[in-house]
Amino acid sequence: MNFKTIILASATSLLLAGTAMAQTEVKIGVLNDRSGVYADLSGEGSVIAARMAVEDFDAAGKGITVEIVSADHQNKPDVASNIARQWYDQDGVDLIVDVPTSSAAFAVNEITREKNKIFMNSGAGSADLTGAQCSPNTVHWTYDTWALAKGTGTAMVEQGNDKWFFITADYAFGHALERDTMAIVEGSGGEVVGTVRHPFPGTDFSSYLLQAQASGAQVIGLANAGGDTVNTIKQASEFGITQAGQALAGLLIFITDIHALGLETAQGLVLTESFYWDLNDETRAWSERFAAQNDGKKPTMVHAGVYASVLHYLKAVESTGAKETEALMAAMKSTPTSDPLFGDGMIREDGRKIHDMHLFRVKSPAESTGPWDYYTLVATTPAADAFRPIEDGGCAFIAE
């Protein structure tokens, strides 16, 4: 081998070594409510969950450098839109996660498609994210209004509670939850005798509760969430509504809501969630680690969704070896999902993540063995039946 050949071989070796040592850099933005009515169910807990996913995946050991940033969208679509645009245009963010408040999520959904980035939603509920406003750049992970309506609405009607009145948050999520639950109730032979909408966020629900009380409905469906739901239930208790025989259906309730209410007030509520910290050994182990970083507070299903979605995204980054959006989305949709919190599942072509949904009943104080022991599992809806069929969603891009 002559000198020129040795030099060429050495240069090739150095080039290959440099390629092998190259790091894939990923920047993830956790965008949510960090100061308002949804701060407890998402907030800093979602940042903790994202970091745990990076650690558990051993991203650094696999040649993936991950930076996580966060911001407060204040539950305002314009704020969410401005942050998302700055993150994509100026700050190099590749993926946005969480984003509770459906109106804010729709804004991020639109900008993400425009910028050809990726949005994995855990916090917002409107099923329109994989329906009328679906996007090839968005994955809707944790729950949606159709799944909530099917779980809680069906159970209540089957128990003979078929006359409903809705108290609804007056924005995209509340409208979608009311619409989807109304369809389930009426499709099951029930009747909706009235609806009323309250400002978001709200504080005084007395006039709405009095209308519901006077309606003669058996069930008052609460198509709101977070602090709004907590305050509605507290004020309903003060008015003696449940004692008088009307049932409250919390159509979206998180474990943090039950913690705020206390079991004395919340006992007997029936609700639907996709995750509960005490479901099995794996959820318990992960939740203990999470709580140790979150002032002892157990995770909500939104936190669990952030963890699992980031984990699946990182698997796609590893398998593709790049950050090209189309390749990553294709990898995430073609690879079955698997994690310790939701088990096995899949992402449909319309972006809907498919997994089991669970119906729970809130324990009485006597049934609970201690803090955060709040739920009794009533039933599980298998993944195949838990979410709206893809052909019924009206997602335009899957037919393109």
UniProtKB/TrEMBL annotation:
Q: Which UniProt keywords apply?
A: Amino-acid transport, Signal, Transport
The signal peptide stretch is 1-22
Keyword hit for Signal: yes
Q: Which residues form the Leucine-binding protein domain?
A: 25-363
Pfam families (UniProt xref): Peripla_BP_6
- UniProt record, GO biological process: amino acid transport
Q: Which family does the UniProt entry place this protein in?
A: Belongs to the leucine-binding protein family.
Recorded protein name is ABC transporter permease
- Species name: Devosia limi DSM 17137
